[in-house]
Structures are given as C-alpha cells and as structure tokens.
Amino acid sequence: MFKVIRDLLRYNTEFLAGFTLTLLVLVFASAHFWTPYPGYNLYLLPPDMPPSTEYWFGTTSRGQDVLWQLSEAVWNTMAFGLTVTILSRVIAISVGMVSGYLGGRADRILMSINDTFIALPNIPILLLVYFVLREEMTWPLLAVCAALLGWTYDSRLIRSVSLSLRSREFTRHGVFSGMSTWRILVREHLPYVLPIVFFTAMNNLIWAISLEVTLSVLGFTDINRPSIGGMIYWANQHQAIISGIWWWIAFPILSIVILFLGLFMLAMSVNEYVDPRSRLDRMGGVA
Amino acid sequence: MSSLTAYILKRFMQFVFVIFTGVTLAFLITNLSPVDPVEQSLTQLTSFGASDPRAVEMMREALAELYGLQGNLFEQYLNFWGRVLRADFGPSLSAFPTPVSKLIANAAPWTVGLLVTSILITFVIGNVVGALAGYFRHNRALKVLGMAIMTINPIPHYFLGLILLILLGYIFPIFPISGGARMNMDIGLNLSYIGSVLYHGFLPALSLVLAGLGGWFIGMRSLVSNIVTDDHVIYAELGGVRRSTIFSQYVARNAMLPQMTGLAMQLGQIFGGTVIVEFLFNYPGMGRLLIQGIYRGDYSLVLGVTTISIFAVAVAVLLIDILYPLIDPRVKLG
Fold it and tell me: Which of A11, A87, B156, B196 could disulfide-link A210, Cβ–Cβ 3.0 to 4.6 Å?
C-alpha cells in the first residue's frame, strides 16, 4: 500500500499534484483545532473588514474571522463527506459482492433494487426528509440518508468484478475445500475489489461534499455549524455580493475548488493505476 | 416473445417498480415523521388571522381528510396512491387556495425546457469532443480543451452558477440575473417572447452545461481510446479505410452505446442540479417551487413536487430505455 503511494508520488505528476492539493486543504482544515475564535461564536470581531495583515481573509458581517471560520467549515464538510463515503462504501461492497457472487435470483432482486435507487432523484427526496424533520435534522442523520442514496453506481461496478472472480479457478478451489461463502468473499475476493473501491471512493467523496454544499447553501442543514455551504448561506443572507463583501464568498469557493481539483486528480491517477491500459496509452505505447 | 418485446417489458417493469418505490418512500417519509402536517398547517393558517375555535376545528377535519390521515396506515397509504394517480395534492398553503397541481403545471414546462435543452447540448458537445480527443490523441488543441474541461468538471453546479452570475450578471451585466422571461409580455409563440425566454435561460443553461460536460467528455474519451486499439479498428486502418469513416462508423458508434445507458442512469441526478440552478437564478421552475415550499412550510406543495419529480424522472428514463434498441442493434438480436 505505502509502496504503491510512494511509486505514484514519484512517477505520476497528476497524483503528486492531487496529493499535494488535498494535503494542503487537510492541513488548513486541521488548523481549526487551534482556532482563537470558535465557529459558533458571533460578533467577536469588527464586521465587514477586508482582508488585511490582521485578518488575512477579512471578517464577515457576523463578526467572524473568515480564515478561521473557513478552516472549521472545511473540516466539518470533509467530515460529512467522509462519513457518507465510508457508509455508502460498506453498502456498495456488500451488495455488489454478494450479488455478483451468488448470481441467479438473489442477483436479479438486488440489482433491481439497485437500479431503482439509481433512477430516484436524490435531492428532492433528501429535501423531503429535511422538510419533515426540520429541527431534528442533524448532520449524522443527513449523512446516513445521503449514504443510503449514494451507493448505487459503485455496487454495479463492484458486481461486475465479482462476477468475473466467481468463475475463477481459486474460487472453485475454495468452494471445494469447504470454505464458507463469507470467508470466500472476505478473504479471497475483497482484495480484488478494494482497488476499485478506492477509485470510486474519491468520486463519491466529491459527490457527497457537493451534496452537503448544495443543501447548506439553501439553509437545509444545521446552519449554525460551520460548513462551506453554510458560510455561503450566511453570506447570501447578508447579501454579501451586493454589498461588496466578496471575501466572504470568494474564499469558500476557492477552498472547495482546490479540494475538488485535488480529489479529482487523485481519482484520475488512481484510475490509471487500476487500469494499466490507460497508463500505457499515456506513455505513448501501443496497448 | 421476441427479445425486443422482452426487453421493453423488462424496462416497463423496472419503471413500475421505480414509481412504486418512490411513492412509497415519499409516503413513509412524510407519515413516519414526528411532525403532524395538520397541526403544522393549522398553525400556519391561524397565524394568517382565523382564530375562532369552531372554525379551527372545522378546518382541522377538512385538512385531516385532505392529507388522508383517516383510517389506519394502510388505508392512508391507499388513499395517498389515489391522490397521486389523480395528481391531486390539495390546495397549496402558501398560495391558498390555488391547487398544488396547478402550481406544478405552471412550473413544469420551465424545468423541462431548461433540462432537455441543456442535457442535449451537454451530451452532444461532451461526446463529440470526447470522441475526437480519444481518437486524435496527439492533437494539441484538443489536449488544451480537454484540460480546460477537466478543470471545470469537479466544480459543483452551485459554484459554477454563482461564478457565472457574478461575472456576467453583476460585473459585466450582459445577462439578466433572475426570472424566466421579461415581465408583462404577451405569452405565446411570438419572436420577442421566445427571444426573452432564451435570453433569460442562457445563464442557467450554461451553468448546467458546464457542470455536466466533464462527465461525458471523460467517459467518451476513455471509451474511444480503448476501442481504437481493438482488432477491427486496426484491421480497417491497415485495409486503408478512410480515417473519417473509421472514426464515425467504427469507433464513435460503438462508444455511443454505453454512453446512452449512462444518460438514462444520470437523469435522476441531473434533476438535482436544476433545483439548485433554478434557486440561484430565480428561475420559475419546479426546483424553485420546491425550495419555496420548504421555506414557507407548505406541506402539500413539497409532497406534490417531490412525487411528481419522481414520476418525471422515471418516465424520462423509460423513454431513453425504449429508444435504446434503435441505436444498439444487439438488443434486437438478443
């Protein structure tokens, strides 16, 4: 695992760039542990100060320091994204592997459930959930709801890998020597599935984070908890663009673009690693 | 039974299943929630003035019937289905007494128009450029274009829309920043009205197009660069078939098939993109209606828009699936 990362860092510029950007954002987000102004506190500072040497990213109309607020916001947004990604990965791996390995009727039933969830529009359903729960809506609950909607693409992908593993020689050996289905799936098949899981996890993380941003921008999450979308929500509430307080909106946008660019480059280069054909292609050889 | 009939029948079953699950989900979410829609609506209505206790009691009974809260859960469920199939979600609370179905009927054409136009544009541009970039791998202009598309790709809908809004709405006020058409115009098929609709729809459509382009581009490019190395393509090249023929007939055509499946699969998610874009540009579609309904606590409106959007997406997916055999002959041969 570490050797793979080291090699990728050394020989793949895209991976290096993506890794650096993501790491930068992560370091920036971790800085909030030392924040002098906790995110829930308002009117600690003079409002509407433009970026200066004292307030690097300026202050908001709510008297918060944009720099520290953003640091905590990025952390919270990433925490949400990671929670969704991990939960939905667990569902995607279980459904995909079981469906591919068992085949037959179980496969048909699981895949029609899968296809149904693919066709359902996520955002209206999440908005309905928010609407009926309102005050009770906390971010872990929202993460669970998002995870329940976000596993479908990847479980199809995992299933296709599982299907091919099922007919391999070593699976048959396992079955004939009396390994339980559970053991075959976990010990024999999982190592083949995991590289794909890593690749799709990055895309899922991007999806989950933009979901959080979308809902928060509309004010449909716990808006007092700092998050990137939440910052934009408050900036909109105070009409930051019209009154020229551009730094309140510009820095959150910048941070999310850098984060997404980093994750996206990681996803692309890991994809290249998983699928060697595109790597040969890049080197200019004939695949 | 021919394989084509079997294919369509299977898709239709899937369609029914999606509708069934979606409607059931909407029913369960609203009914198992701790919030009582009747009490909530009553607070809304009484805050508008009516405070006579007898009138409130009468209203309570009327609302309970309206929301189908009579009988046990299963009866309520059947009741809900009946209203969904009649597209009757009762009157909207925030625009009392206009029926929800009328509000939706007014908003739907805007969303459908915006969505269809931007999906078509995105799909065509993304796939054509992606196919070219996959086939002519060493073309410098295509490489630069590809880099630009890849950079825009990970930026979420909201930010692309916001950047466009600030740039072309405020800093360089070329395009209008809200609405679907200019106020006080004759609505109908006259040039100035259509022009105004296109003019107002330009920025929302552009942000949807830019946000969706990357997915198609990346998918098509990797599909094409895989097909290029297939035996039949190399054989055609050795046999001296014209490169343009190879590109359009051998390569692009084969790569289109998975992309069409992708189109059906992505529709549900594209709809989510329009919700936020409509909100941002104050575009008079279903997305804005939904968000307004939530802000105003309009129970019947939110439920109505959610259910109708599940229907709409399911129908669109079904249509694409039925058109699919026209493009992929293998479905017919089965």
Answer: B156
